[in-house]
């Protein structure tokens, strides 16, 4: 169990098996276009974000290159899916239903278990958003209102700071400003 600001939240209330989440959220929400090696664009960006959230060390650049293809094949192997390096409906559903909340940034258009968890946290905070796993306009508006209420930068993007505050923790401290040192042949001095 996790203690929120004024409510108790059972973590397993938002986390489900793949089939339960697919039935609850619906196939249309979890499935994105089929993506092939050497494709590029927004679907590849989402794929790379999901793979990073699952622990793969990839650069998110929107290009489905050889490193992304190897990560997809490794993920498919882990999930006991057909290993072909192509991201079809089963791979998308597995990626989106097993992603842990807080492991990727969320913005409008994103879907998955982490979005559903976010929506549950927003409902607990008193925001009227559907808990459907689809980050739409109403979820974005609720996130922006939450960020404003907690004096965070109101972007509608769920970043690590927003995740932290949503889960009832104080925001992460801002690192102190670094001072620079310059070398002068005569002496060290602070700038």
From TrEMBL:
Gene3D superfamilies on file: PGBD-like superfamily/PGBD
- The segment(s) forming the Peptidoglycan binding-like domain are 40-95, 111-166
Pfam family example for this protein? PG_binding_1
> Do you know which SUPFAM superfamilies this protein is assigned to?
PGBD-like
| Protein name per the record | Putative peptidoglycan-binding domain-containing protein
**Originating species:** Allocoleopsis franciscana PCC 7113
User: What is the taxonomic lineage of the source species?
Assistant: Bacteria, Bacillati, Cyanobacteriota, Cyanophyceae, Coleofasciculales
């Amino acid at each position: 169990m996790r203690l929120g600001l004024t409510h108790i939240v059972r973590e397993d209330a938002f986390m489900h098996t793949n089939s339960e989440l697919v039935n609850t959220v619906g196939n249309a929400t979890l499935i994105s276009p089929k993506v092939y090696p050497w494709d590029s664009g927004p679907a590849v960006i989402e794929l790379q974000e999901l793979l990073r959230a699952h622990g793969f060390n990839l650069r998110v650049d929107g290009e489905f290159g050889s490193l992304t293809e190897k990560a997809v094949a490794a993920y498919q192997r882990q999930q006991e899916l057909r290993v072909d390096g192509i991201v079809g409906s089963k791979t998308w559903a597995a990626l989106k239903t097993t992603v842990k909340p807080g492991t990727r940034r969320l913005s409008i258009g994103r879907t998955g278990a982490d979005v559903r968890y976010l929506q549950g946290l927003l409902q607990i905070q008193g925001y009227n958003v559907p808990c459907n796993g689809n980050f739409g306009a109403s979820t974005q508006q609720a996130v922006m209102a939450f960020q404003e209420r907690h004096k965070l930068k109101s972007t509608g993007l769920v970043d690590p700071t927003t995740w932290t505050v949503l889960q009832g923790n104080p925001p992460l401290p801002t690192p102190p400003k670094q001072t620079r040192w310059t070398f002068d042949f005569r002496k060290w001095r602070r700038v």
